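Before the break, one more example. Copy the sequence into your notebook; we will annotate it together after we see the structure.
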Amino acid sequence: MRIALYQGPAEPGSIARNLALLEARATEAAGRGVRLMICPEMFLSGYNIGPEQASRLAEPADGPALARAAAIARGSGIALLLGYPERGKGDAIYNAAQLIGRDGRSLANYRKCHLFGDLDRGMFRAGAGPTALVQLDGIRVGLLICYDVEFPESVRLLALAGADLVAVPTALMDTFDGVARILVPARALENQIFLAYANRSGREGNLHYCGLSCVVGPDGAELARAGRGEELILADLDLARLSASRVANPYLADRRPELYGALADMTCAK
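Here is what the structure looks like once it is written out:
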């Protein structure tokens, strides 16, 4: 399956303009044989927008902006994964990502579980799962958002559930570019999965995003890597490569779960 990651400066606060950008990039990706395009965290609304604007722009998972994104998926003939502010029960606002199939049907809706700092906590309620894992073109796709991937347990849960690809919309700032360069490849290797990490670029308020979006293979090798500006990068996912890597590096098969049971009950030592 050929996938694309769009790394770009979606305009904060303008859902209509970002939907137009989504359509343009989806059309471009479709013309290059792409079957799935992944966009950054909070793509539809902007990320660094503050609680008032996050609440104003939030909508349910079946709201009008997502309906328009579904029409774009149908029109372009590719699946889309994009971040947005979701309005849930009790008027709670979540940092969410929705995977839309090529027929416009919602395949999965995931809420960010690990909130990053005051920026996230001031706008959103933390998601509580469950693990988002769906089939797309014979590939089992798991979803995480940004900071989630920095917790090894999150990726390992998806790997143990059978994920072949973990797709991660993100908004990584330039002070943390080691996450994109070091941690993300390590997550792919240690869990024997493909990992697609789609970042924002440019400035948004006082935040400067580092770009460096990437697709990494199960052997930790980069299949595609963006620079720091706006870019559409492509990679081909080959399940034969996945199978071969899992034979060469049988981390999942060689686990000893009986040794790790205490992890769930442990707290950080002070």
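The chain has one domain: 2-249. The first helix runs from residue 15 to 31. Try to locate both features in your own notes.
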